[in-house]
Amino acid sequence: MTTVIIKTTTKFLASLILTFGAYIILHGHLTPGGGFQGGAVFASGLALLIVANRYDDVKRAFKRVPLSSLESIGALGFLGTAALGFMGYTFFKNVIANSGFPLFGEPTPIGINPGYLNTGGTLTYMNIFVGTKVLAGLTSIILIFFLLLGVKKDE
Amino acid sequence: MRRSLGLFAFIGFTLFLLAAAISLRPFGEPVHTEMDTYFIQHAQEEASANNVVTSVVFDYRGFDTLGEATVLFTAVAGVLMALRKREVSS
């Protein structure tokens, strides 16, 4: 399955796709997109890497990647960020927004503006956690299908 | 007896559907105007995000996203659980 065309294309495309996925996750509060979509794009880049490489290389490379831990971290981080709202407010209250917190805590200018990265409050943290969760989950599904059904001796 | 009862139920249900179709809201008329206006006017200052959709998904309706994340988690857990045994044996 891993022809020269796929390998050569993957060398150029995989890094671009991974960068684009990370961009979508990080800019979820400014541009269309967010955690789910960015995580899916990131997982598609990893799927390209999985499909284009040899069976043993993929197995050895992904043995050290804690995918299930990443998914659990994403879920628990999402719940924990939501539970931050219990500090005087209710569940899912955006407590960091407009509070001057160093990361993502600056208030956004009202009206039509290009948008600044350092805004958004807990929305950005939730985007990052959900993105981690989605990319770990989808990648683990693709990986286990590849490890089960993949051809062991190609080329 | 049963047949006439079924016919009666069919006619009644059809009339109910027709009445519901006639009393539909005209196309293009929004249902919850107050909520839409509130989101558009207050999302930028309350959630401090330029993308109003993100502030709706993660702030105003965060429980929705929590459910979606749980669905994905359950799907991944189900796939891994269903395929684990064969992987060990092979």
Structure description:
The complex is a heterodimer of chains A (155) and B (90). Chain A is mainly alpha-helical. Chain A contains 5 helices and no strands. Chain A has helices at 4-26, 35-52, 55-61, 67-83, 122-149. Chain A is elongated and about 55 Å long. The model of chain A has no long low-confidence stretch (mean pLDDT 87). Chain B is mainly alpha-helical. Chain B is built from 4 helices and no strands. In chain B, helix 3 (52-60) crosses helix 4. Chain B starts with a helix and ends with a helix. The model of chain B has no long low-confidence stretch (mean pLDDT 85).
Number of strands of chain A: 0
Structural class of chain B: mainly alpha
Mean pLDDT value of chain B: 85
Give the helix proportion of chain A (percent range): 55-70%
Oligomer: heterodimer
Q: Please indicate the percent range of residues of chain A in DSSP E strands (runs of 2 or more).
A: under 5%
Outline type of chain B: flat
Radius of gyration of chain A: 19 Å
Helix and strand element order of chain B:
HHHH
Secondary structure category of chain A: mainly alpha
Task: Say how many strands of chain B there are.
Answer: 0
In percent terms, what proportion of residues of chain B is strand?
A: under 5%
Distance between the termini of chain A: 8 Å
Biggest pleated-sheet summary of chain B: none
**Per the principal axes of the C-alpha atoms, what is the gross shape of chain A?**
elongated
The ordered string of helix (H) and strand (E) elements of chain A is HHHHH
Low-confidence stretches of chain A: none
